[in-house]
Amino acid sequence: MEWLIRMKEAMDYMESKMTEPLRIEDVAGIAHVSPFHFQRMFSMLTGFTVADYIRKRRLTLAAQELASSRIRVLDVALKYGYDSPESFAKAFRKAHGLTPSAAREPGVQLKAFPRLSFHLSLKGDQEMEYKIVDKPAFNVIGKSIQVTCKDGENFRRIPEFWNECNEDGTSDELIGLASEEAWLGICMSMDMEKDLLSYWVGVKADEAADPHGYEKGTVPAASWAVFTSKGPLPDTLQAVWQRIYQEWFPGTGYQHAGGPEIELYPPGDTTAEDYVCEVWIPVVKK
């Protein structure tokens, strides 16, 4: 319940600052969590990044103001954080399908993005097993993409990327170079302010073992919360991710540590009812 109250207060603060500069550090401080943890929690719970949500709310409020008053378009643009009428008009057209001036026409239909609220569902009918594992830094090799989180694009593009790697032989080649027999899906870095993440299909391997010139990276040492998923992909795994952020984080004394997130996929039939894979999330105790 304390978590729910803090999130509500953070949302109230965001709503009160829609016409003012808004720092994620201040929002996260109200929720008593780190900026990264707040943004990751928000994104996983709502399907929107904080920046995307604020942008949609501001354009909704701007449209309502244009439709109900004679305020100049320039003044509305400045009020809601746009530095020019051109940038405002471009964003407005993308959101509403028409120009800011057209929003004043009688009977015009505008799109509204409602304010979100959080509700904690206490199910209690299924235990969530996890373990905390301390692991030193390790090297990975693989192939990566930069993908935006806007409008859920990452949920579409990442499965496509996996299909591409499976079809062009990248996955098979990587597992042949791995020091441990498992593929890794790694959210290597996440820039929540820019709505971008770097996603890797990779394996744990020493870079000297790679004759093919794959990208190389290091996963830093961390304490990891490890969750098991049993069942066909992707539905079972997606359900585990939802429970981690909807139930586990709010109900424990842990926060996201801000490092890479990992999905570990052992060889096997990923469509089988007994297929087992894991989610690894770096955490710190509050």
Write a brief caption for the model.
With 286 residues, the chain is α+β, with helices and mostly antiparallel strands.
Q: Layout of helices and strands, plus pairs?
A:
Elements: H1 2-16, H2 24-31, H3 35-46, H4 50-68, H5 73-79, H6 85-96, E1 130-135, E2 138-148, H7 153-167, H8 170-177, E3 183-191, E4 196-204, E5 215-219, E6 222-230, H9 235-251, E7 254-256, E8 261-265, E9 276-285
Antiparallel strand pairs: 1-6, 2-4, 2-5, 3-4, 3-8, 6-9, 7-9, 8-9
How does this model look, in words?
The protein is of the alpha+beta class and 286 residues long. It folds into two domains: 2-104, Orthogonal Bundle (Arc Repressor Mutant, subunit A); 130-285, Multidrug-efflux Transporter 1 Regulator Bmrr, Chain A (Alpha-Beta Barrel). The chain is 40% helix and 23% strand. It has nine helices and nine strands. Strands 1, 2, 3, 4, 5, 6, 7, 8 and 9 form a nine-stranded antiparallel sheet that branches. This is AraC family transcriptional regulator.
